[in-house]
Amino acid sequence: MEKKARFLPFHAINEYMLDDYRQLVIQSVLGNFNKLSEERQRKINSLIKNHVRVQGFRNSTVAPLPLKINGCIDTYKKSPEFVAQILGAWSEINSETKKTIFGYLEERSWKLLPIEADRSLLPGFMLEWPKEDSFEILIDSFREKYPDYPLSDDDLSLMVVWLSNRLPYEMIEGLFQQETEN
Q: What is the pTM of this model?
């Protein structure tokens, strides 16, 4: 029996993000824009120019940072492509955290795309999440393994979601065990 992956569009992540945290992620990306690859900068600027409205600016990319961040929030809520680029950029900026959490998830037998894969090219987030690895369990286990790692629970959770390309929409018992038995 062939099993087809089902996806939620990237902007579905907004159901799992608090407003303040959404703003922090966008602020982190736009505030560290010069640290991003040229390709990522180009894609984000193009999306901002075409989809973000900042009053008083014909071209939103040249608006002052606080105004641009506020303008991006609505786009982040509505545009799967914008979310994909922002989260891809966010993971690029947080590359050390990305490596640490990637290794952590592999140790827990999560099936992941290679770390260097551009997840923003995917159609969205997969729906299935391993029931035995709720956010609480993952956070507690991570804190036990890395007690001094300076990372907020929100950042940890978001990096898990991004690297696994999954949202906890359907909690599945033994998700990764089933895949290895076939």
A: 0.93
Where do we find the tokens 């299935």?
128
- Rounded CA-CA distance 30/63 in Å is 12
Single-letter code of the amino acid located at 26: I
Adjacent-strand bridge partners of 145: none
Burial-class residue 129 by CB neighbours within 10 Å (0-12, 13-18, 19+). Answer: buried
Q: How far apart are CA 156 and CA 83, in angstroms?
A: 17
| Separation between Cα atoms, residue 143 and residue 140, nearest integer Å | 5
Instruction: Give 88-124 pLDDT, tens digit per residue.
Output: 999 999 999 999 999 999 999 999 999 999 999 999 9
Check residue 153 and give its pLDDT.
Answer: 97
